[in-house]
């Protein structure tokens, strides 16, 4: 081999080595990309917090895990689809109210029992005992891991007329979003209507419904105060939310990336509570400032509501066997404390 040929061979070898190095470097630097679906509208506070969580994970993993958050309408899913979308790896993360997921896991819907758990403190007292049960069912059945448990603010009645007591709910048509709310309204001699969050305001405008069950936070985000001027603050239930991760995809992450993600989930749990509580307080102020009358129920009406609903709790627990009975007992113990 002459000098010229040798030099060309050496140059080619260097070029190949450089190309391989650059390709390996690019591969090492390319982030793992995940999709996170939230059923909340893009500007709602939970959707905003989900995006902030994703940004924090990106920083904590030095850019190695990039989670893109998609809000309602940005992917072809609705709230009841979230569990299966995560389980089948259509998205790697998702959040959903357990009430919306009742079609998939009805036995986990204990916090949707009307008037069982009606405050943040009650919910968080009950959670340490109930969360492991929820986690096990979702992992065993759907291979999804719960990363964060949190709760939306108390669910209340937002109506186009003033209501002073439980008897005045009779005959009203109210938007509901889980089977327990449907049964509650039946027991109160009212009618339930099932529509999506996006349809609530148009339905109120057209007077297709007389009101809706949701939180003050959602009512404010939807600017419901332009139409609805009455809030009956029954604190019917807390809106139990779970943020889920596809377990197979979680295990595929490099160990340090996986640990960083789970650590951030643990760190952000209290932030979701803070967002929810401060958002509820702020939202009630906004609603009141915009002419919505917030009427508190009497202690007698609350006692009456619990007594009226208690057979529903027991029936629900019996229907869902050991899991249902276990969750109800643990919830009563925590929420009654």
Layout of secondary structure:
Layout: H1 3-29, E1 32-38, H2 45-60, E2 65-70, H3 82-87, E3 93-97, H4 120-142, E4 144-152, E5 155-159, E6 173-176, H5 179-187, E7 191-194, H6 197-205, E8 211-215, H7 216-221, E9 230-232, E10 239-246, H8 247-252, H9 255-289, E11 293-295, H10 299-319, H11 321-335
Give a description of the structure.
It is a single chain. This protein is an alpha/beta fold. The protein is built from 11 helices and 11 strands. It has a single domain, classed as D-Maltodextrin-Binding Protein, domain 2 (3-Layer(aba) Sandwich), CATH 3.40.190. Helices cover 51% and strands 18% of the residues. The strands form 2 sheets. It has a 6-stranded mixed β-sheet, sandwiched between helices.
- From the 3D coordinates, which CATH architecture would you assign? 3-Layer(aba) Sandwich
Q: What would you call the structural class?
A: alpha/beta
CATH fold field value = D-Maltodextrin-Binding Protein, domain 2
Total number of strands:
11
**In order across it, which strands form the biggest sheet?**
7-6-8-5-9-11
User: Which word captures the global form?
Assistant: globular
Mean pLDDT: 90
The portion of residues assigned to helices is: 40-55%
User: How far apart, in Å, are the first and last alpha carbons?
Assistant: 89 Å
CATH H-level superfamily title: Bacterial extracellular solute-binding protein, family 7
CATH class: Alpha Beta
Low-confidence stretches: 18-27
């Amino acid at each position: 081999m002459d000098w010229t040929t040798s030099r060309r061979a050496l140059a080619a070898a260097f070029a190949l080595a450089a190309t391989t190095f650059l390709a390996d470097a690019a591969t090492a630097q390319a982030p793992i990309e995940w999709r996170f679906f939230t059923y909340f509208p893009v500007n709602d506070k939970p959707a905003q917090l989900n995006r902030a969580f994703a940004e924090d994970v990106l920083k904590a993993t030095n850019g190695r895990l990039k989670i893109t958050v998609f809000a309602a309408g940005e992917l072809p899913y609705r709230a009841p689809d979230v569990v299966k979308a995560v389980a089948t790896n259509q998205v790697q993360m998702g959040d959903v109210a357990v009430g919306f997921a009742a079609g998939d896991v009805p036995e986990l819907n204990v916090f949707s029992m009307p008037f069982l758990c009606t405050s943040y403190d009650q919910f968080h007292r009950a959670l340490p005992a109930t969360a492991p049960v929820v986690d096990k069912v979702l992992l065993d059945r759907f291979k999804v891991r719960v990363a964060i448990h949190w709760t939306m603010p108390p669910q209340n009645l937002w109506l186009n007329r003033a209501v002073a007591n439980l008897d005045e709910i009779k005959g009203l048509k109210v938007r509901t979003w889980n089977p327990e709310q449907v049964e509650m309204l039946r027991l109160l001699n009212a009618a339930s209507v099932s529509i999506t969050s996006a349809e609530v305001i148009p339905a109120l405008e057209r007077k297709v419904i007389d009101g809706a069950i949701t939180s003050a936070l959602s009512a404010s985000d939807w600017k419901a105060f332009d139409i609805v001027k009455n809030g009956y603050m029954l604190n019917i239930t807390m809106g139990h939310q779970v943020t889920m991760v596809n377990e197979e995809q979680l295990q595929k992450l490099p160990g340090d990336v996986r640990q960083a993600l789970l650590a951030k989930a643990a760190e952000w749990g209290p932030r979701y509570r803070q967002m929810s509580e401060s958002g509820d307080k702020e939202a009630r102020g906004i609603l009141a400032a915009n002419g919505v009358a917030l009427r508190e129920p009497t202690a007698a009406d609350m006692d009456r509501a619990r007594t009226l609903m208690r057979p529903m709790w027991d029936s629900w627990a019996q229907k869902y066997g050991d899991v249902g009975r276990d969750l109800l007992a643990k919830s009563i113990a925590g929420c009654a404390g």
